[in-house]
Amino acid sequence: MTELSVTITAASDGPAFRKILYGPQTRPTNYVPDNFLSSLQRNVNVRPHTYLNLLLNALPVTGFIAVLALFLALFGLLLEGTLPAAALVLLAGIVFVVGWIGYEAMGRTSQATKAVKSAILVTTFLLSLSPILRTLSQSTSSDTIYALATFLFLLSLLLFPSPYKTAGHIATTTSVSASLVLASRLPGSEDVFALLLLAVLAFSLFPILSERLRTTSTGPYILFTVLLSLSPLYAMSFLQLGGTSLIPAYAIIICAVTFGGPAALLYSQRFKNEIRGPWDPAVPLIRPMKGGL
């Protein structure tokens, strides 16, 4: 075995210190040379961020918050009787057709037949089970229902932007589960069908369309997110929550997540101090053996 050694010249008198694993040493094991910190390096592997880059990375979170706010606003309108269920079903159908056309336009292969079959299957399934789903948790108190729905939506919000597929699937499952829980508060089966159809579009199909648009073209994706963020404001303007408006709270949350979060991360970057030096453990280079074992 060839002995690889690195010689460090000591400032004091005596033989040079050699960084070797095997072999006789001329210094004690706890010896530290005077020039040990001369190879100190700071933030070597740190990639500096820009505000624009962080802003673009925050848009998926902004879009999901906007979708969640729009869903809750439409649920409130259904609960108050302001929005007819038929109108919401028609709106969901239009959104599905427009989103499907946009998704097909950005893709290389057409999946029209598969998409139509899936849409018909989901619609028929929800329509047939709406009376059962409405009474599924009807006996539970409203306080418990709203607390459980809040917990599930917060969990989906934490898991949605994750790059891991398992976390994304859990986020979709928790969002649809929260929608099922909220559906028990609606008065009629047609309202339940409309809400669950909206939940499938918002929490199952929207992430697919949003990710395709984000990876395809940045400009249209920014415009899409801006329009999506403004849509809950229109729906919230019709809510009658005892004279209380949710628009200021929603606007503050959107601005804080979209602009405040990247700014805070960019500000904290100046305090990052990654130190590297000769004390770092060696990284083994494992090469496959010729001819196998």
From TrEMBL:
Any one GO BP annotation for this protein: GPI anchor biosynthetic process
Q: In which pathway does it act?
A: Glycolipid biosynthesis; glycosylphosphatidylinositol-anchor biosynthesis
Subcellular location as annotated:
Membrane
Protein's UniProt keywords contain NAD: no
Q: Which Pfam families match?
A: GPI2
Keyword annotations from UniProtKB, A to Z: GPI-anchor biosynthesis, Membrane, Transmembrane, Transmembrane helix
Main location per the UniProt record: membrane
As for membrane topology, the entry says: Multi-pass membrane protein
Which parts of the chain span the membrane according to its record? 51-79, 85-103, 145-160, 192-209, 221-241, 247-267
Entry GO CC: glycosylphosphatidylinositol-N-acetylglucosaminyltransferase (GPI-GnT) complex
Has keyword NAD? no
Protein family according to the UniProt entry: Belongs to the PIGC family.
UniProt name for this protein: GPI2-domain-containing protein
